[in-house]
Amino acid sequence: MELRFYIIRRALILIPTFLGLTVLMFILFSLIPEQLLIAPYLSIHQTLPRAYVVHQATILLGLNLPLPLRYFKYVWNMFHGNLGVMNLPGYPSSVAQAIAISFPNTLQLAIFSTILAVVIAIPLGTYIGARPNSVADQTGRIFSLSGYAMPAFWLGLLLQIGLGRNVIPGNPVGIFPIQGSVPDVAVAPPWFNNGFTYPTHIPIIDALIHQDWSFAYGAFMHLVLPTLTLTYGILAGVLRFVRAGMVDSARQEFVKTARAKGVPEREVIKKHIRKNALIPTITVMGLLLAGLLGGVVVVEEVFDYPGIGLLSVLSATTYQVYGVIGTTLVFGIILMVANLIVDVLYALVDPRIRY
Amino acid sequence: MAETTVFKGRAARAEVRVRKRHPFLEDFASTFRAFMSNKIALVGFVIVLIYIGFTIADLTYPYYLGVHNINNINSFNPGGYAAAIPTPPFVLPPSHLKGAPSWWFWLGTTEFQDPILPIMLAALKVDIVYSFIIVGSGLVIGILLGSISGFLGGYVDEVLMRITDIFFSIPSLVLAIAFIYVLAQRGFSGLDSLVFALIVIWWPTYARLTRGVTLSVKNMKFIEASIASGATRLGIVFKHVIPNVLSPSLVQLSLDLGSIVLILAALDFINLPIISPFVPELGRMIYNGEQYLVSGIWWPVTIPGLFLLLFTVSVNLMGDGLRDVLDPKLRG
Amino acid sequence: MNPGQDEYYVRVENLVTRFFTSKGIVKAIDDVSFAVKKGEIFGLVGESGCGKSVTASSIMDLIPDPPGRILSGKIYIDGFNILSDLQKLVTIKIKNETNVKIKRHKRYLKRHNLVLSKIRGKKVAMIFQEPFLALNPVLTVGDQIMESILLHERIEIANAIIRRETMGVDDIRAFTEQMLKLTDAEERKKAINNWVRNFGVSEIERSVIDLFDNQKDPEIIVREIMRLVQEERTGINVRNMARARDYYKMQDQLFSLNLKLIDAESRAEAEVMDIQQQLNNLMVEFIKSKGEEKEQIGKRIKELRSQLRQKRKQVDRTAIKQLRKEISSLRRKMNISFMGYRVKRVLLRKRMDKPFRVEARRRALELLQLVNIAEPTRVIDSYPHELSGGMQQRVMIAMALASEPKMLIADEPTTALDVTTQAQILDLIKELRRVTESSVLFITHDLAVIAEMCDRVGVMYAGNLVEEATTEELFFNARHPYTQGLLQSIPKLPANGTKFQKLQSIPGSVPNLIYPPAGCRFHPRCPYKMDICEKEKPRLIDVSKGHKVACWLYPEGGVIK
């Protein structure tokens, strides 16, 4: 019972934060000179008379209204799925649509990286945490440190050099594609149009659903290098905290109680120590996720991976106003939701929190 | 043995000798010693010092690199557009500058025959100085706002918490991009907008930290007594909050140094149009070198990256060592 | 190894425990010996830091390693010396106080811990000082109690379930006849309780008791009980349960074989050690002597040397080898015949565990009632932080009693509680001792609690046991200066309206255990200090029946003061 209340409470707190987010975005939005706000509309509707476009855009953006009302107009537009327009080759002109296309790719990348990192980090961290100051421990520490300090884009480049196809001629392990997210097929499969794959919009899963194995394989190969790059960073962070959590938990009094009951050592580690060690780990996941999203931006740029990160970068480098603001907004929303999920996980693991 | 005996004797007459002690200095000395005993952190610290040493040399005596305008890569090799292919390390490019010291070319050159090594050293200045500025300003602003909010409590505190929440709910890199973009439209030039944007992004961390410390200090009973006997709130801030906030801030600061340098490099790497491509910066060097990857020319990419990695690893080692030393002290 | 023959359930002999820290070697326990009789409450009292908690932890070998280790000594629990293989576990090289190299022999440590994990919780259980910290915050209280039950009581539970499912009318008839012979209601209750336990039908205990109270006709009783039992049956596959039970039985066998092995090994080694020692002594003499003596001693040495060699060979050939063989063959048998069972268990863990968990839960509820917790069903699914301090401590006690250990170690169980709760817990412990007839090692620094609870008391100071006596004897006739000081420092209300006296205390403070005082560790604070106290440590000797003191005021064979 309490769990449900807790979730509702956390979700409610999101609302003012979300509003604050929109306010922030609006502040940035309003700092931009008018011409730049109208320019994208002009470049999109080249065929229509200029004055007409300007007039319509002004009404749409509420530029004729006083500032506070403009804010409401802005939020109104946002809720109606209108995040502006942009002019990027290869993307639809509606920013909202462009984001919608790119989102599943980013989701795919982020989820796979996180899952891979967690699945490796927890057992590894448990093993290392149970042997403090051993060789494994030192190695783990060095690895964690390098993960924190590693510039993600650089690692991506290194992976491209080392494992990338067609980079170094005659490279025996150069098998992974270094760009894009879907394989080049002469004829696009029927469930792939407009940049969307159906039904789940996640390329690999859709390919598997449609039993197009070669497509799935291609999509998988395209995922490998970006995922490895991202996983490296997350893994380092999670590993460090799992290890620290294990060491801290092992010092607690209840571990002694468990041993005094005659619980065999392996079970003490798994059931008692590790369960408690996961609590600080999950706490820190929220922060790691913020870093993850930042990494996503850079990694997508390096690998030309068509996700929201790439969209954001392209918008910034080609002066697409709405692209920049829109993607930033969406990133904020993603992070808020992710934090909510982490909070829920935290409450699931630690019963003390549910009140 | 049934009679009671009174315990007298030497033990009861133990002397109590009082010596004048300087707790603050003693503390510092023992912290310092503890830090020094951690060999790995020490290595990190030394390396960071070396980097900073180069930066200071750069700032005070820019001509040590033999260059006249450090903010322009081309000043290393003016007119060096001759050959557009990088030369490998330890090889002198065919059209190398007359009188350029040979150590410049130990690590090869970029595509415009600009020697990598001195540019990296010059790039240090940008990265380190600017990150110091950013972190320093963020620290000051954060401490200010955090202590105010912590002290006043209530409405003000809630508002600050929401504001910091908003900043925390957007990934720093993304927000940085947006900020820089907007600021650039308003006319701020390149790196300045970068610094400003990052300061705005960074202060919430320190504000939160300070607020936490302020709250815990506020709850101690002797504060009431102090206020009752006339201590001003500002006085309390200086006397109690600041010393307690120094240690965690120091740790955070040392780790942030690394993070900011990484973000600066990342922003340069994605070729944000705001930043002039001629300012020496590690991220930009990597960006420039990216195009040569397919031809098997690896050094414009790997070497600046290694340089950067070495710096961030050292900073993290130092920060970790600091944390190990300072944290248990906090826990008492 | 003679379980059941001793009047002492736990015996500690010459225990030495040290902690190897970066600041030096803490000589926490320095040759401590005492014993706890079956069914008695033995108190261990002393100031903070005197080593009583460390002693308690040492008994079950719960010393955290690093940084601590039991260096030598014997600890007999129910006749078995758990420190038999102590020498084989680690090799320690001490260069100076801060430079110590410890090499741990993993295989032996593993075997040692395996054996101990069967003893801990089952033969001896421990409850701790701060119940909130000692309970795992992310597991429910019920989970933690059931953990203990599921570790040690599986065979019993399996048997109970099998009996329940296969019980026949004749068994019930025999039982009914027995019961009807018992006229005393209390006795009958006890017997019924026993029976329902053994036959896994605890649910119907109440009904059965009522039945015997109200009914006299055996046939009706038998029929009624049969009906009740039928209702309780779950139709579980008895063969599977028997298989599981056999598996656990084999594990138990393995365990006791290991016990025997360790014992045999240690005995053989003792013999070798013995000869080695003789040899060493002779060597010393050899060096000192000359001429004709030297020749003789030389011959004797040769003899001993060959004896040694023989003994060493014997060590390999005797019972040890036999036992080792038995163990490995048992293991092989287990692996082969129970392979299917094992695989099944990995795949269907939850389903196979279910009947055990059901019964364990029932027992846990019983335990909670036993410790006077009002709403067991609510508490069993609560988390520790949802309970009050007193309840948490009761839960700890319930957890400790889950496997019916014959000895409970209570490490300052009431120090963290308020006085009323403290009284309740102490009463509870006394009551439980009465019902289960187990011994209690009660550790505290509060003399009042000692006076109320304990049959015998041991006083510890700076890692040594300085006095041991019955409670009465200690309070009225304390011999050791430290004990006297402790007793004096209790504030007393003066009689007859005389003025309050100044609070007496023992001047000085507890010594640093890294560099403890030479000789008797109490001598810097002792008002009766003599020269010998600084040089030699007094041993614990009897001064009167059951009253031992370690003080030079009472040297062996005579009292000075």
Please describe the structure with a list of short key phrases separated by commas or semicolons.
heterotrimer; A: 355 residues; mainly alpha; two-stranded antiparallel sheet; 13 helices; 2 strands; globular; C: 561 residues; alpha/beta; Rossmann fold; 2 domains; 8-stranded mixed β-sheet; 4-stranded antiparallel β-sheet; 22 helices; 14 strands; 16% strand
Question: What's the layout of helices and strands?
Answer:
The complex is a heterotrimer of chains A (355), B (332) and C (561).
Chain A (H helix, E strand, L loop, with lengths): L1 H29 L3 H11 L5 H12 L5 H13 L15 H35 L5 H15 L2 H12 L28 E2 L2 E2 L5 H7 L3 H38 L2 H9 L3 H39 L4 H10 L3 H29 L6
Antiparallel strand pairs in A: 1-2
Chain B lengths: L22 H15 L1 H22 L55 H37 L1 H15 L3 H14 L4 H29 L2 H8 L4 H37 L12 H9 L8 H33 L1
Chain C lengths: L7 E14 L2 E14 L3 E5 L6 H8 L8 E10 L2 E2 L4 H4 E5 L5 E5 L1 H14 L4 E4 L3 H4 L6 H12 L1 H13 L2 H13 L3 H14 L6 H10 L3 H15 L5 H51 L2 H27 L1 H19 L1 H9 L1 H22 L5 H5 L8 H13 L5 E5 L7 H18 L2 E6 L2 H7 L2 E6 L2 E7 H6 L4 H8 L42 H5 L5 E4 L2 E3 L12
Parallel strand pairs in C: 3-10, 3-11, 8-9, 9-10
Antiparallel strand pairs in C: 1-2, 1-4, 4-5, 6-7, 11-12, 12-14, 13-14
Question: Care to give the gist of this entry?
Answer:
With 355 residues, chain A is mainly α. Helix content of chain A is 73%, strand content 1%.
Question: Would you give an account of this structure?
Answer:
- The complex is a heterotrimer of chains A (355), B (332) and C (561).
- Chain A is mainly α.
- Chain A is built from 13 helices and 2 strands.
- Helix content of chain A is 73%, strand content 1%.
- In chain A, strands 1-2 form a two-stranded antiparallel sheet.
- In chain A, strand 1 and strand 2 form a beta hairpin.
- In chain A, helix 5 (95-129) runs antiparallel to helix 11 (265-303) and helix 10 (253-261) crosses helix 11.
- Chain A is globular, with a radius of gyration of 24 Å.
- Chain A starts with a helix and ends in a 6-residue tail after the last helix.
- The longest helix of chain B has 37 residues, at 116-152.
- Chain B has 10 helices and no strands.
- Chain B is mostly helical.
- Chain B is 66% helix and 0% strand.
- The two termini of chain B are 45 Å apart.
- By secondary structure, chain C is α/β, with parallel strands linked by helices.
- Chain C has 2 domains: 1-138 and 403-492, P-loop containing nucleotide triphosphate hydrolases (Rossmann fold), CATH 3.40.50.300; 139-269 and 315-359, no CATH class.
- Helix content of chain C is 53%, strand content 16%.
- In chain C, helix 5 crosses helix 15, helix 6 (154-166) packs antiparallel against helix 11 (238-288) and helix 17 (389-401) packs parallel to helix 18 (419-436).
- Chain C starts with 7 loop residues before the first strand and ends in a 12-residue tail after the last strand.
- The chains are: A mainly alpha (355), B mainly alpha (332), C alpha/beta (561).
